[in-house]
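Task: encode each sequence below as structure tokens.

Item 1
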Amino acid sequence: MTERYLSSEVPALTSQCRNGSFHVNTDWYILEPVDADYQPVPAGATSHTVLVTNLANRVQPIIRYELGDRVTLATSPCRCGSPFPAVKIEGRSGDVLVFGAPGGGTVTVLPLALGTVIEETAGVRRFQAIRTGPAGLCLRLEVAPDADRAHVRTAVEERLGSFFAAQGTGAVAIEHADEPPQPDRSGKFRQVWSA
């Protein structure tokens, strides 16, 4: 059994070799590890995100599509002998949120845990949570048609307050944005991330 690093937009992006390395299928795709300003990062350095171009899809071109993953290209060829470059997948660039702790220090919060608290609140249809600083979180909520918006906002704030207290963070100010949840500039819909 082998694992693969892929997405629905780029289904054959990599293949895993017998040594466990993920090799980029450069016959079909261009993989560009970039920093936060979308500038290339060298092999051996972990990217902020990664852009991918599909060279084979002529029906719906995908050009420099942001996957949102942090990757590191290998600095030397893989021992398996594959001519394709190896890449190490570090995880999503928005995978961890860092909030301040009482008395100094920081607390790391996983987006899935934070998102679960919000999406399991009665009346929430869709949401986005954006960390705006070590003590700030901006929420974009879309409430169910039969739900009271003010009541849902209050319920989310209470649930998040309990969640953050259990995580050991300091007070986190919740700001409610007027705009609804929306895709980012790449067209990808992300629920939780750090601005």
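Item 2
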Amino acid sequence: MTTISSRSDMTTLLQRFQQVRALTDRLTRDLSPEDQTPQSMTEASPVKWHRAHTTWFFEEFVLGADPAYRPRDPAFRYLFNSYYEAVGERHPRAARGQVTRPGVAEVAAYRDDVEQQVADHLAAGTLDDAWLGLVELGCHHEAQHQELLLMDLKHLLSGNVLQPTYVERAPDGDPAAAPEPLRWVHVPGGVTHVGHDGDGFAFDNERPRHRVWLDDVEIANRQVTNAEWLDFIADGGYTRPALWLSDGWATVQANGYRAPGYWSEDDGEWTTFTLSGRRPVVAAEPVLHVSYFEADAFARWAGHRLPTEQEWEARATSGRELRAGLLDPDRCHPGLAAESTLGDVWEWTASAYVPYPGFETAPGAVGEYNGKFMNDQHVLRGASAITPPHHSRVTYRNFFPAGARWAFSGLRLAR
């Protein structure tokens, strides 16, 4: 976290806080209570829970730092704590969809109450540096949950036989139009530095900045596209065990995978479920909703590999990249694959999610934010079409289990 040290910094933080809170409300304003309450799988959470949990974070760690503060409802501390063991017991994750009360209206009132109190403190300048740092962390935490909210909502809506639309958007262009040619970008080897340099906000898992040795590598100028994935399918990619890691092959067999998440084939035509309903697969878009297992198998089929996160970061800081699509609430879907580093889809890397040399967890309950998950996860880099603006950095380390594919995840090749 950064240190908020001046009145102008506090004014900027107040504006940022209000913008973040308003975006959550913008993303959920057209959803019914019925849309916001169910839970489609253990790994996903209801929309209503995301709205309440991000509010609880500010109440628990900012307002609650004042010994005189009295919570709006003591039960919320149990219902809306996610994984902070130091705070106390919490409602089971798998049962979040069973929490019909408090209802959506009461959660909205809870949001308004906590938001007003935090805003009043920021406007009055009554928070010390530690509290201000927690407000900043809370803003980035809510931005993470805005993306998770859309991921989880998409998974929920995809299971509805009506294939409902969350956001209307214009029809795509020619779905069969070819993607731009893939080119290779040389990344010279040698000693380089990776990790956040301390200028501005970063999560603890992005630090400390440290030296690494890289061999020469070439990394693709764009992500793998749907057109290339269709070639993988046509060549029996999902039926050839030699392409797959052992656990990946077991996952494919157990779940009957034969295409990315949300894809369906009817009379030889492939479609995919989007937040704008079911649409034809667009050949030139980056492939979306593939697991680490699938990304690794594709790279092996293509005769290449996934980049390490260190290689990815070295490529991203070379100064030649453009920022592609981040969250547009009126689209919520990738554009065409183009030369870029940040945007459209998160990119699986070959790197396990482990601490950087010298990593230290923050004191107190917020120290549970990232470090406790540094096992059995893989790192993704970049951003996606549902990553909020101001929430992407070349040092950002996203992470998911190898089998996860409801995230907006794709890949880029290296050789």
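Check on item 2: Residues 1-5 have pLDDT under 50 and may be disordered. Residues 298 and 322 are 25 Å apart (CA to CA).
End of task.
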